[in-house]
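From the shared-data thread, chain only:
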Amino acid sequence: MNYQTQSQKISTIILSTIVVVLAIIPAFNNYKYNDHSKNWLNHDYGKNLLSSTEEYSVFMTEGGDNQVFSSLYFTYAEKLRQDLFPYDQKGNIFKKIYGDLRYVIYDTLQERSHIVNKALFTGQEPFYTDIRSQKKPYLVPYALGKPATYLTWELPEKQLLGDFYYKNYGLMYKIQEIRYAVIDYIETLGSANINEIQLYLQEKLGRNIEQNEFNFWLDQLKQDGYISQSNNTILFLKSYPKPFKKEPVDNFIIRWDEIKNLEYFDYLSREIVISYSYEQVNLLRSQIEELQKIRRIETTKNKQELLDTQMLDLWDELIKYADTIKKIGYDSAGTLHNLGIFYLNVPETFDFITEDYMSIAIESWENALESAPYSWSTYNILLWAYVKQAIVEPQNSDIYFEQFDYYVDTMTNNMTHWKSMSKDITKNPTYKSIEQLIEIRKRHAQLTGPRVIEQKNQVTQMINNAQELNLPVLQSYFGIVINQINFLDNTPQEREFYELWYKAWKLYQNNPEFFQWHTSTLGELSAYGDLIEPRLFLITAQEADKYLPSLNTVTENDLPNLISMFKIANATENSTLSSKYRIKLLDASKKTLPQDQYSQIKQQIDSIN
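Structure, as tokens:
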């Protein structure tokens, strides 16, 4: 071999090595993005769905790819769970329980879906002589008796589907008779007031409950030995038979913790982890809320400590799932939006959590808008949060309002590219929903400037030192805070404000000008009772009576104060106080007004009641 041939051979080897290395480097760098060797997510999810249903069940899946196609594969291809009756709620893949959707008009489909769903809940199967027909289906009872019915998602308009509720088991919701919800409610508590239980059932059903049907459900539970009754208290005796010996989640195949590159998977694969984690957040939240109810009435110290430990353990687990959602669901706008709302409500939902999660809520909404820039509801709540934080933390208001301005500009710019929006964005209801926030942002200097601080100091000094009332100053300062009260919820500023108002009422309630301002203002605010300190309504309703005129001296000019006091008493939800001021107002109206005007005001009062 001559020197030239050897040199060519070496060059070829070097060149080949370089090419191989150049090929290996991107393969190595991109391996984590393309490695699906451990992606058994849809496989495991499908099996977990099936394991969340008992034997001989109707299995209804929502029309999403993950739910429908994994269920289809296991029941049709692998022939698992042949005891099930699988349907999909969009009627696309499994048996067409709603007829042929391509030939059924929308109104007919809406009516038919309610008929079919209610039939399935009661153990009847739909059949069609012609699946393209607009006629209602025949409903035939299942041959082996009524099967249990399970759904992957709760159905809307539940009040149209009968006296049922949705009970979560693993990944599925079982249709259960509403009476069993009584057991769910009192099993942890041991007992509950009968009125509380009735309200709970109404919330579950989505409609008002007649007293005779409520009594019928209670009687059934008593006959079956599940409950007993002592006066207005329902006592728990035993639980109803559960469909599973073990909780379905105990048999779940969950191995995504082994996947190191999960955040790089496609959206549908990650959606499985996101959905499961969000369901766990909701489930753990419910469990904590039940323990909190017990903790509030528990008086034994060691039991209190045990409950505190249990709640903290559940909270740590909940936060773990929430962190998974943030990491894996970075482009799941809907879930991030809801997660932000969860964080926002933490202080009101959990008694034992003192940490402020508002910054994490804001981060969730900002991330949601990165992946869904046309999510108008997310803009709305994010802008509200910026205004709230600017008011609560005035030292950081410039930072929050800079972000506020950025997202208002982003929102309006995106609206101009949205086909369904009108050309004049400011006339669109979506934009109008944030106009008040924009106005507050414009007036922020006026609301927090030196003049307001001076007024606050004047009011504080006036009330604390029991000085003579300066009503204009008090009205001006209190009016500014009332306009912001929605943003001060559960903050030191809110508590400080109400303490001032309580003291002002105690000091100046016998001053006619203050009394009139106080009652008229509080009467107007009664329509927003959830935002106002309830104690303020109560002390006013308890003490104001002595400052109102008697029936012998009442005039038509006194009616505005009486109307305000009736609204205030009604806001206390104390039937005795409400009835007292209602009678006083009606008597005064009848004495001072013509019959037709009296009839009008009586009709208005009755509508408020």
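The two ends are 109 Å apart (CA to CA).
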